[in-house]
Hints:
Blueprint: H1 2-22, E1 24-30, E2 32-38, E3 41-47, E4 58-70, E5 78-85, E6 107-117, E7 123-128, H2 130-137, E8 145-149, E9 157-160, E10 171-178, H3 180-183
Antiparallel strand pairs: 1-10, 2-3, 3-8, 4-7, 4-9, 4-10, 5-6, 5-8
Amino acid sequence: MKKVELSILSVLVAVAFTLQARGANLEVEVADMATISSGDTTRFLLQFDLPVDLEACTIDYARLLFTAQADSGWEEPLDIAGYRVATGWEMGSVSWDYPWINPGGDYNDSTLTLFTISGQESQWVSLDITEILSTWVKGRPNNGLIIKSLIEKGGNFTILEDPELPPGVKAKLEIYYTAQEVMK
């Protein structure tokens, strides 16, 4: 068992070193977040602008980071899922029913990214959105992300402001990329 753990750790260190060596690190702050609810189900919608420079780059790794806490009374580990939103929407006019075809948001459920939190303390959530971000820089519309509990019946959570982020910023994207000049 120890050899497997050591091998996994070695691979993670190698991947992290490769990402640092190959690309530039870019952070994008996410201030635009909407909360939509119906009954006891809550979802979060995030929008963010990506630099135009990324269009000519290869996304090596990208993750969305935010602080979340399971709602009071939830005792089990809670899977938080992120999906690429399929329908355009605007902050301030979005609701559970608008502008969606499907109440609660139109999203591509094959673009799932997942993170598990446990306990009642707030925790950093890290969602790997490399595939989603890659499709956006290749020209697919960037309608943002929808963040929700994988099992929504009673398994809600709250996204909290984190003191490590600037005031008003709810989340951040960390993007590691390789510029076109480096790839030649």
